[in-house]
Write a structure and sequence with these properties.
By secondary structure, the protein is an alpha/beta fold. The protein contains 22 helices and 23 strands. It is 38% helix and 15% strand.
Length: 658
Amino acid sequence: NYPLSQLKLSNTRHNSKMPTASVAAPIILTAFSYAVFWINGVSCHIQRVVFAGTFLLSYLYNTAFLVIDAMTGDGLNDSVFYHLDQGMEGAGLGQFMDIIQKAVVAILFGFALTVAILMRAPQRREGKKLSRTCKMLPVAAIVLSYLVHPMSFALHDQYLLQDAVNDAPVIKEEVRSLFQQTYKDPREISNFEAGKNIVYIYMESLERNYIKLPGVAPNLERWEKEGVSFTNITQGPGTGWTIAGIVASLCGIPLVTTGGKGNSMHGAKDFLPGVTCLSDMLQKAGYHQTYMGGADINFAGKGSFLKSHGFDDVIGKNELMTNELKGKSTGHGWGITDDLLLDVVFDKYKELSAADKPFALYTLTLDTHGTSPSPRCREKKVVRGDRSYKDSVRCSDYLLNNFFNQVFDEQRKRGKNDTLIIVNSDHLAMPYHKPTELERLGPRRNTFFVLGSSNTSSESHSMLGTTMDVPATILSLLGYPGKAFGFGRDLTIHESLAKQDPNFLEDLKTKMWNAMRKIFWAMPNIMDSPSIEVDTNAKNLRVGGKVYSIPILISADLHGLIDEIIFFEDTPVAYSKHSGTTIAVDNCKYFKSQLGLNDKNFCLFIKHQSSPKGWIRMLPLNSIESVSVDLNADLNMTAPAPDFIRASLCESANQCKM
């Protein structure tokens, strides 16, 4: 584990909320600049070209934000940065087609306005003189539009302030103690043994306010009343999209990544290796754990997370279409429709129930991602066919009701009551659900209720909680009450940290984010490792007992504590801003050296934070398949070792011959 006593924590804001100021101001400023430029007229062609380019960039900047905001309802938020890191492979983009079409029209209009500047902007009349202020006003308005733009604030928070976090000095002991007081390592829970079998159903975007809508989800409403329900589950930072919601509900933490600035976590061999999740505890207790989902298992790193935390079988769209559902239509862009998915999940439930071993079976519904319910719902006429998200919820309500009845019928046939069914929305309904009607029903809350608990037949808890409280609460229903789990607390007994301290969720973002990244990703101290090993054949690097894929850039402070680990798939690691002690492995052509290397081989680059300028060392690996380097010796020497050469990282393609 990462030594807590050595953490470099910061009270600098990591990822603050986007300003509430509307994007209207920058749009008005951009339009104003266009109008003033047109009124002023142009004196030369170069003036046309410069302003045309400046205007087009500002126009596209505004358009990009409006498109993102239409999809997220929260502008450029954490989920956008996460999916930029992880990629969108496996995403069903069809539901955003109307937004994409409008964006194309808007972009074409922007190009038309730009062409008008180049071809039609009036020539300034002879003798017409403009003050310096008038001449500069169009460009000044555009510059100001960038400065007040909500997307600029979001980019600043994500990238520039993250650098401030990494470079900040060690702060007061009270911040370090804040982490120690609030985060409880689940490994401290002793004597945990297998209890009831578990069926865990994540409902895509099906928040509790949908259940409260009259006539939309009557079956789920009834089941919630019959089970143990938690009616006041809010959404904390780093928990507002599917993989983040799953991490929060299984591990009691928000989802943090290994770093920023174009990072792709595909290079990490383990997903959150420093975290113990509920699934890890279940595995240790002897549970056989299976995940079955209708979407691509690789989407957003979901498969990597599950495989890293105790799951025996991880089955997604491709696996199901190859086996259980071979030859059948998937149904929609996101993957397999819920009618087919829940059929195979129930078949798996019967199979696992027949075995003499405790099990946990997880699934994630998909239909409520869009407005096309499963075909079976249309056949049974349980939907209205109005292509609304409420119709998709009606379908989920029907299908899940049948599934619950099947599970309990199967239990009765076996004469047992040995299954706990956990029902949980992965996150609140997304803004493209147009949740105005949901908001009118009161504060929006996640769905969380449990069926089959032996504690009680019916019970409702209205205590404020977050998704991070779910694992501790599940433990309680498994017979281990009152336990703290990560940042989560047992809502059957204790208050959530969000209730105990109104500032907790804000502190999570502003004070503990960097610490969580280091601890939860188990970032090693490079000074504790006598050497680093690079295997170009296997394309990995080993340091501090951890193995990472290459290309990679690792940045550490003077004490060797790793601040950031950056993986890139398409962009050279060298193009990332780097500071402090740096270890990088990338294609040699991305390094500057006196040898002018320009080939497809890998080079190992090492720089110590305190080294004099120029003593930056690079080892061309060329045909070497693997190499081991004495890290302490090479970082602290005053002159390059015989095999090393002086070099530096290129910061752009122009600095190196490509």
